[in-house]
Design goal:
mainly alpha; 5 helices
Length: 132
């Protein structure tokens, strides 16, 4: 029996898959040649993955409803729009800072919180590693 407040629903699976894709794709984008056709094309896919992660989070609520993470999701959606606008208006430095901050804050740091005890992904990972 799991001690988490969540179960693997289609929404949570899709949320987790989109987050995983965004982590991998974002890492590649950060290392790729900037301004190339591939960077722009894959950048749009990353933005869609991030929007899916943030948007789907509103359908995932704990026993007490929305949490602080939903505030981060709203901030992520606004930041995504700001980052895209910066790129489209050729404000390269603003775009770079915004997207790096989103990658680190909304994916890496928030992703680390999913590994805490009692969280679904952390519990699944510990079970897969034989640590639970």
């Amino acid at each position: 029996m799991s001690s988490t407040a969540y179960a693997w629903t289609p929404t949570i699976v899709t949320h987790a898959l989109a987050a995983g894709a965004a982590v991998l794709l974002g890492a590649w984008l950060l290392r790729s040649r900037k301004g190339s056709r591939a960077h722009r094309r894959w950048g749009w896919i990353w933005v869609l993955c991030m929007a899916a992660v943030a948007g789907l989070s509103f359908a995932i609520r704990g026993p007490t409803g929305f949490s602080w993470i939903h505030g981060l999701s709203a901030f992520t959606l606004v930041s995504l729009a700001a980052g895209v606008l910066a790129a489209r208006t050729h404000r390269v430095e603003a775009h770079r800072v915004n997207m790096i901050a989103l990658y680190v804050g909304a994916l890496v740091i928030t992703g680390l919180f999913t590994l805490l005890p009692g969280r679904l992904i952390g519990s699944a990972l510990r079970g897969w590693l034989g640590l639970s």
